TrEMBL record:
<dbReference type="GO" id="GO:0005737">
    <property type="term" value="C:cytoplasm"/>
</dbReference>
<keyword id="KW-0479">Metal-binding</keyword>
<feature type="binding site">
    <location>
        <position position="108"/>
    </location>
    <ligand>
        <name>Zn(2+)</name>
    </ligand>
</feature>
<comment type="similarity">
    <text>Belongs to the endoribonuclease YbeY family.</text>
</comment>
<keyword id="KW-0963">Cytoplasm</keyword>
<keyword id="KW-0690">Ribosome biogenesis</keyword>
<protein>
    <recommendedName>
        <fullName>Endoribonuclease YbeY</fullName>
        <ecNumber>3.1.-.-</ecNumber>
    </recommendedName>
</protein>
<dbReference type="GO" id="GO:0006364">
    <property type="term" value="P:rRNA processing"/>
</dbReference>
<comment type="function">
    <text>Single strand-specific metallo-endoribonuclease involved in late-stage 70S ribosome quality control and in maturation of the 3' terminus of the 16S rRNA.</text>
</comment>
<feature type="binding site">
    <location>
        <position position="118"/>
    </location>
    <ligand>
        <name>Zn(2+)</name>
    </ligand>
</feature>
<keyword id="KW-0540">Nuclease</keyword>
<dbReference type="GO" id="GO:0008270">
    <property type="term" value="F:zinc ion binding"/>
</dbReference>
<keyword id="KW-0698">rRNA processing</keyword>
<dbReference type="Pfam" id="PF02130">
    <property type="entry name" value="YbeY"/>
</dbReference>
<keyword id="KW-0862">Zinc</keyword>
<dbReference type="InterPro" id="IPR002036">
    <property type="entry name" value="YbeY"/>
</dbReference>
<keyword id="KW-0255">Endonuclease</keyword>
Length: 140
């Protein structure tokens, strides 16, 4: 079981990696799943736009793209691509710290892997409620 962090075309240093990993694992377990393997790839807007176009046929900028690679229903395996530029912009827009916005997006990806959606208004409301709940449980 592992949570891995990678950078692609940007240089960003995450603080408290071990605490981040524990928080992510605890979230997954509280949702009733087992963590097997999650890879977070922090990248630029341009890099994530290419991923969005190539794999999802979306020609828009986004803060996150999540790929669910799970083979068993109770295990979490996935790749989560996050635009560090977009999370920085959103932090300013929503008047929160860059770390808080990055953590929100990180847990948003986990929630997608746990089966939550955000396309319909009621699904988005539940997703935001879950994000807020788990953000409040951060151990750092």
């Amino acid at each position: 079981m592992a949570v891995n962090f990678f950078n692609e075309d940007i240089d960003i240093k995450l603080k408290d990696k071990s605490k981040l990993k524990t928080w992510i694992k605890n979230t997954i377990e509280e949702e009733g799943f087992k963590l097997k393997d999650i890879n977070y790839v922090l990248c630029s807007d341009a890099y994530l736009l290419t991923i969005n176009q190539q794999y999802l046929n979306h020609n828009t900028y986004t803060d996150i793209v999540t790929f669910d690679n799970s083979e068993k229903e109770d295990q979490i395996v996935g790749d989560i691509f996050i635009s560090a530029e977009r999370t920085q912009e959103n932090a300013e827009k929503f008047n929160v710290s860059p770390a808080t916005e990055l953590h929100r997006v990180m847990i948003h990806g986990v929630l997608h892997l746990c089966g939550y959606y955000d396309k319909k208004p009621e699904d988005k409301a539940l997703m935001t409620e879950k994000e807020n709940y788990y953000l409040a449980k951060r151990i750092f």
